[in-house]
Prior knowledge:
Largest sheet of chain B: 6 strands, mixed
CATH superfamily of the largest domain in chain A: MetI-like
Structural class of chain B: alpha+beta
Order of helices and strands of chain B: EEEHEEEHHHHEHEHEEHHEEEEEEEEEE
Number of domains of chain B: 2
Number of strands of chain B: 20
Strand content of chain A: under 5%
CATH superfamily of the largest domain in chain B: P-loop containing nucleotide triphosphate hydrolases
CATH topology of the largest domain in chain B: Rossmann fold
Radius of gyration of chain A: 35 Å
Oligomer: heterodimer
Number of helices of chain A: 18
CATH topology of the largest domain in chain A: MetI-like fold
CATH class of the largest domain in chain B: Alpha Beta
CATH architecture of the largest domain in chain A: Orthogonal Bundle
CATH architecture of the largest domain in chain B: 3-Layer(aba) Sandwich
Shape of chain A: extended
Largest sheet of chain A: none
Amino acid sequence: MTTDKIIRVSIWIYLGIFFAYLLGPLIIMSATAFNSPSFPRMTPWECLTFNWFGELFRDERILNGIWNSILVGFGTVILSVSMGLAGALMLTQIWPKLRATYYTIIIAPILIPGVVLGISTLVFWDRINRMLGLGADSVLSNGLFLTIIGQSTFIASYCMLVLVARLQRYDIALTEAALDLGATHAQAFRKVLMPFMMPAILSAAVLAFLASFENYNTTTFTFGEYPTLTIELAQKVRYGITPAISALAFMIVALTVFFALINEANIKRKKMIAEARKDATVGELAGKIEVPGLISRNPAAIALIVLVIGVATVTASAMTYSPDQCIADVQEQKRLETEKRIQELRDRRAKEAAEKAAAEGAEGGATQTAPKPSNNSGFGGVFAPNTLQNEGTDDGASDEGADDGAAGSSNNSGFGNVFDPNALGNDNN
Amino acid sequence: MSAGVGVDLENLWIRFGDFVAVRDANVHIKGGDFFSFLGPSGCGKTTILRAVSGFLEPSEGNVLIGGNNMKGIGPNKRPTALIFQNLALFPLMKIWENITFSMEIKGASARERRKRADELLDMIALPGQGDKLPSELSGGQRQRVAIARALCAEPDVLLLDEPLSALDLKLRQHMRTELREIQQRVGITFIYITHDQGEALTMSDDIAVMRAGVIDQIADGKTIYNDPSTAFAASFVGENNVFRGKVLDVRGDQALIRTNRSGDLLSRISTANQGKMNVGDDAMMFIRPEALSLAPTGSQGDHFVTAKVNHEEFEGNVFNIFMEGDGGKELKVSIPNHGQSFEDHSGQDMTLEYDVNNAVAVPAGELAAE
């Protein structure tokens, strides 16, 4: 009984740690996209802001990177899926004794480091380019072309693995049946094999696109004049990062979750339809598969709807909500804090100076001239007690007093106005 | 429809490497016939079918359809349609699309196809089921859809590769009748592959019995059952009791055979072997269980068999008596049930009688595996 409980609790603890490890960084990064400080951080939470999204969409390089990534992604999808399909078909047709060898060869690119693939792609096509006597501006040395070719070398192998799995479940008798009924080989391929392969082709395409989108180490050698998003991000991070990157990450996470949920809901819906059809006649079905059928017993669909509503709410509030007031408040607060610290510093200094003066006075006796507070000190009057004295009436004052003093402070600060709250205020405005 | 197109196999050899799948087959199939290839699995009958449909090129010899040599002509150009063992219905197409696939690839409009599909669905008694998917039909319905799909291509020859083997017994028996009816209605040549002698006998005009790539006998069902030409054909088609021995004497179309256990028995020599069996040859004699009847105990003669009863069973329409037989195989006797009383004879010797015309002698040969 108790051991049972312990086991159950530890399973939950393990799951908690596991998911925290998996999702924690994503959640924190997503949260920083909505915080106002210009360095991505979650604590201290200052102001809810959507400005970083705006910032992101104003960043030419990021936008250009996304566009290049999409171009490369589509090119890679087309090339990889067709090569993968050809490879998979070949695997089923090839002489059985060669099959294992062929499989190893075609899987090898997955095992080769992406860096090596990138360099070799670059070198190989450069040679070809020179052999053909083409210039540096030819198609063969174009970054887009090279990146697509380079990524496809290994992404095609992933695609092939996905396609082979489906192809193994294909009954070759179906192709034979099509041929027997008069179809040409091309027709049998297009009308029978392709529709059967479609689900696998779609998953291979999604996989290829994602693999292409996130690829960095191959692309870094081949991108040329077409830096993809990963390249742009890497270059940007070198000069420091802003929450605009977090905003991008958040959007990618949100989109991924969105599509995953759509997929999940769809699968569930199909399963439910199949179940319903099994124990219902066609007549009954007409009334049965209605909208409620989509939601009932379909957690993914419910989550999807919640997500959509959430996104809509956030977008709508982003349209109307302005963080300016909050940001101004926070800045004001920061300013005050800074001032308070300055004040404390001054107080301490003044105290020190006073103590020093008192000590000197005690040592030198009454005849000794106390150092006259003047502005011609080597420190530019910074440590001149008089100056401090003049500055306000709140030498030993409380916090409230400091505030008042700061508000009414003049330009004769010993710090050369660097910490002048008014000056700060002017900057902010 | 016309009288149908005949199919001829001329000296057909099919080899896979060193393995000979079909050895020198010569078959003439008349147009409009229901022709069956009957044999155990692995005997090469499916290979012959694939050679006729064009998925296999013969190593030697020719396939002629309607008198035309089919050498070098692909399956999509032959006037044949094949019904696959697993039916091979296109799983992602609706029933009507499946049925009219042959029209689709010729570019027929959807409306034409729908119309033709409805006609064929009526013919196979599945009206209004055109919009379902194959997975939503039962085994027997899928079977009929496969036939409709093949017929839609308007073939001259329909090839069927054990299409009933996946169905349960009741449905199989029902489909036999139905297939035969369809064949007679459309009037085209059917070539049917089966290992089930019941299917072959009930449906076929002619049957070719195959064994290990060789065609043993081609004849109509009655002839094959009553007058088998080889030991294999005699033992494979229907139940049969075998008596091994040597030819002691040949008397016209009859032979006296000295059997190993049951004394000298007289038998008719099968038609194909008359004049070919000589005194001293190893021979086998076959008598069907239902051709044996009880005789007064101790009767002697060349058409009486005496043996010890092992056990008996009651099968409803018949009583089966199993007796000690030849070569480890039990001798089975089926006595029709006329409501007569029947006592247990286990352990006793019994004498059986048969009509010499119902016994068939063939040269000794390989028997069909049980």
